[in-house]
Amino acid sequence: MRSKAVATLSNTLPRFGRQFSTSRHVSAEFTHVVIGAGVVGLAIARQLAGREGASTLLLERHSAVGTETSSRNSEVIHAGLYYGTDTLKTTLCIKGKELLYSLCKRHNIPHRRTGKWILAQDDQQWAECLKLHSHAQHIGVPTRFVGREEARRREPDVRARAGIVESPTTGIVDSHALMTFLHGDFEDRGGDCVLQTTVRNIQPLDGGESGYRIYTTSADGEQEGSITTETVINCAGLEACRINNMILPKERHRKAYFAKGTYFSYSASTPRPDILLYPAPKPGLGGLGTHLTLDMAGRVRFGPDVEWVNDQNDLKPSPARLRDAIPEIQEFLLGIKVEDIGVDYCGIRPKLSNLASVSKGKGFQDFIIQEEEGFSGFVNLLGIESPGLTSSLAIGEMVDGLLYK
C-alpha cells in the first residue's frame, strides 16, 4: 500500500480544481480530505475515491489504519433491532448490513451469519423482548421466537427462563480483514492515505466557499505542513469533537464523552455456544449488557461492559470489571468455568453524552452526519459508535450523497 508521511505532501502533490456541486468551483490540492482512518473513514474515503476526476486524501494520526474503536469492538454485524424507526442508526444499520454481507461475499472477507439470541430471564425482560420483536417487524428486520425444546436441542447450556427472541440476520466479520480490503481498494481507486499525521488546525477559506486549509504535524512533532482541500469529512472517532471545534464557532462546539468497555476471554472447551447471546435490553443503559460473541476462529468472548472514563487512551483492563461481569455471564450460561474467564482487552466508544441510552427513549443519541450549515463542504460525523462497523458502507454512500446532491 502507498501510505506515506505528511512531510512530503505540500511539496509534491499537484493542485486540482474540482466541481463537487453544481454551484461551486474551488482550486485546491484535493477534492476531499477525510480525517480518521477507522472503518468508517476508510469506507467514506473509498466511496469518494470512486468519483471520476476527484482526488481524495485520508489522514490518520496513528501508524496504521483502524487501531482505535474499529479494532477494539465485538466485530458483530448488527441486524438493526435496537434503535428508533426514523433514526440514522436504524436506517444505516439495516442498509449497511446488506452492503457488508454482499461486499464480504464478493471479496472473500471472512464473515459468518451466526444469528443472535436475545435472552429473557423474567417477565419484565420478556416484555422488553416482545417490544423488540414488534419493533423489528415494523422496520422489516426478521426476528422469531425460539421455543424451549428448540433451545434445549440447539444450545443446551444456554439459560433463558422467560423466553428467547432470535435475530437470524446478525453475524460476525473479521474487522481487520475488512479494513485491509477497504484500505487497499481505496488506494487502488487512486486515493492517498497518510499515516502518523495529526491535524492541528483547520482554517475555513471564505466560510468554506473557497475550501479549507488543513495544518498538520507529524507524530513525532518535528515536521509540519499544510494542504488545501475543497471538502473536509470529519470522521475522527474519539477525536471528532476536537476537529469539530476547530471549524465551528464556540456556540456549536461539542464535548466528547468516553465509554470504556472491557472484554473477557474464555479458554475452556465447554460450554461453547454456536450463536451470539445477548441479554434482554435494559432501557436507559449505555450499552447492550455483557453478552457473548464469537470470532471467526470460534473463540468465545464476553463483554463489553460500560465504564465512563475521562481519558480516551485509558485502555488498561481492570480485574475489578471481571468480578462484576461474572454474575451477569452466569445468569445466561450454564456450566461456565469461572477460572477460565480472563480480562482480555478494552475499547473506547465515543459518546456525545454520558447519559446516553444505547437504544431508544430518554438519553438516546443518534449518529450525527451532516454538512454543517454555513460551512460548505464540511461534513461532520459525530457520535459514531455502534452500529458504526455495520453501517460503515452505508455511511460512505450517505456522505457521498451529501456532497454530490
Automatic annotation (TrEMBL):
Transmembrane segments: none annotated. GO terms for molecular function: (S)-2-hydroxyglutarate dehydrogenase activity. It catalyses: (S)-2-hydroxyglutarate + A = 2-oxoglutarate + AH2. The keyword Oxidoreductase applies. Its EC number is 1.1.99.2. Its cofactor is FAD. Residues 33-399 form the FAD dependent oxidoreductase domain. Keywords: FAD, Flavoprotein, Oxidoreductase. It holds the Pfam family DAO. Belongs to the L2HGDH family. This is L-2-hydroxyglutarate dehydrogenase, mitochondrial. It comes from Coccidioides posadasii (strain RMSCC 757 / Silveira).
